[in-house]
Design goal:
The structure is a single chain. Helix 1 links the parallel strand 1 and strand 2 (about 25-30). With about 220 residues, this protein is α/β, with parallel strands linked by helices. The protein has two domains: about 5-120, Rossmann fold; about 125-215, Winged helix-like DNA-binding domain superfamily/Winged helix DNA-binding domain (Arc Repressor Mutant, subunit A, Orthogonal Bundle), CATH 1.10.10. Helix 6 crosses helix 8 (about 185-200). It is elongated. A five-stranded parallel β-sheet has the order 2-1-3-4-5, with helices on both faces. Helix content is about 45%, strand content about 20%. The protein contains eight helices and twelve strands. It has helices spanning about 10-25, 35-45, 60-65, 80-90, 100-120, 150-160, 170-175, 185-200, and strands at about 5, 25-30, 50, 70-75, 95, 125, 130, 135-140, 145, 165, 205-210, 215.
Length: about 220
């Protein structure tokens, strides 16, 4: 069950939002100020945050930059375009103006959570490497390394089976639709290019050739 944190000092709006989202199958927790929200976030990590701006103490604008790794939908009476642009540039995923329709709120929450799932599906971590398939980059020792589409597809397969040899034929079969430029003859060169790029980033040889079988990520 997905968890939503509602940060709003308006008790009526908070109650209405909590009742509605609970009826739609979400777990909902509440915070009534920016300071209280920080305490809640230290104890748990919700899947999404609904953030009001005009909060007592620490305002929503001050709180937003301190929220990391959680999608935030700003829900505020402020309707100025400049305010919306600033908040979106500072990390908010969406902006909904009060008063709002509950069905629209649900739609925006659904889209925001879908984007998170999509981003997670495009990210893979193994053997000290983090692959971002959507941007064709891999992070090694804090350094981003650019890959070709073929290199990305090969490395993704090796990372999904990290520590286990992956046969040459298996690699060619699984990436053939997306990367038709990879052939049995060129596979060895693609592997060599990946090894060199990773070696330049962190000084480690991440790919081991297994005689008679294929390659393994180590």
């Amino acid at each position: 069950m997905q968890h939503i944190l509602v940060i709003d000092d308006d008790i009526h709006i908070g109650n209405m939002t909590q009742e509605f989202l609970t009826s739609k199958g979400f777990t909902v927790s509440r915070a009534y100020s920016g300071t209280e929200a920080l305490l809640v976030l230290k104890q748990s990590k919700p899947d999404l945050i609904l953030l009001d701006l005009m909060l007592p103490g620490l305002t929503g604008e001050q709180l937003l930059p301190q929220i990391k790794g959680i999608p935030v939908i700003v829900v505020s009476a402020k309707a100025d375009v400049a305010d919306k642009v600033t908040l979106l540039m500072n990390g908010a995923q969406d902006y909904l103006t009060k008063p709002f329709d509950l069905s629209e709120l649900l739609a925006r929450i659904t889209v925001a959570l879908r984007k998170v799932r999509s981003a997670e599906a495009d990210t893979l971590t193994a053997c000290g490497l983090t692959l971002h398939s959507d941007t064709l980059t891999v992070t090694a020792c804090g350094k981003d390394v650019r890959l070709t589409r073929t290199e990305c597809a090969i490395l993704k397969l090796l990372m999904q089976s990290s520590g286990t040899p992956v046969g040459r034929t298996t690699i060619l079969d699984k990436i053939s639709l997306d990367t038709p430029d990879c052939t049995e003859r060129s596979l060895k060169q693609h592997i060599s290019n990946i090894r060199k790029k990773l070696m330049a980033a962190d000084g480690r040889d991440h790919i081991q050739a297994i005689y008679g079988i294929g390659f393994k990520l180590i």
